[in-house]
Amino acid sequence: MTLSKLFLKRFVPLVAIVITLHVVLVFTKVLGGTFQPALIIDLLLFLMFGAGAMLIGPGLDKDPENFVNRFLILTTVQLLAAMSILAALAYVKMTDMKTIALQFISLFVVLLVIQSFLLVKGVKNHNVNE
User: Fold this and answer.
1) CB-CB contact of 19 with 46 (8 Å)
2) Which of 40, 55, 49, 58 shows the shortest CA–CA distance to 17?
3) Rg (CA), the chain
């Protein structure tokens, strides 16, 4: 199996599991906040990380020398997108903005750690096997 397919096969279900867990925790009122904004931020995070995975995934099998550049560009764009989403939510003056922002940033960091771990581990194992 190619490295890109292996990364997508591992990463997309993990993102879905983490986001589903967050939705369930907000719906059952374990975490603070309301359900609709949590669903919106979860959908935005899923789209952001799904698109990022689709963009970096096909390039994993090509040139390992450019992996670091692609990885840094991807994380920078994702961070800028996350901060733009938070700025837009603050601009429209959503209720419970502190709770929504804390949950959004927490989910973003968790998903970024998972993505980084899978990417670096996958590329490292791929280079060792060659």
Assistant:
1) yes
2) 49
3) 16
- Alpha carbons within 13 angstroms on the beta-carbon side of residue 60 total 26
Number of domains in the chain: 1
CB burial of 103-122 (b: ≥16 within 10 Å; e: otherwise) equals bbeebbebbbebbeebbeeb
Segment (H or E) for 27:
helix 3-27
Average pLDDT, whole number, for the chain?
84
pLDDT band at 110 (very low <50, low <70, confident <90, very high): very high
Q: pLDDT tens, 57-71?
A: 777 777 767 778 888
Among 53, 63, 66, smallest CA distance to 116 is for 53
Q: Which range marks the domain in which residue 43 is found?
A: 3-129
Structure tokens of 30?
């374990």
Which whole number is the average pLDDT over 106-127? 85
Q: Summarize pLDDT for 87-97 with one digit per residue, the tens.
A: 988 898 877 78
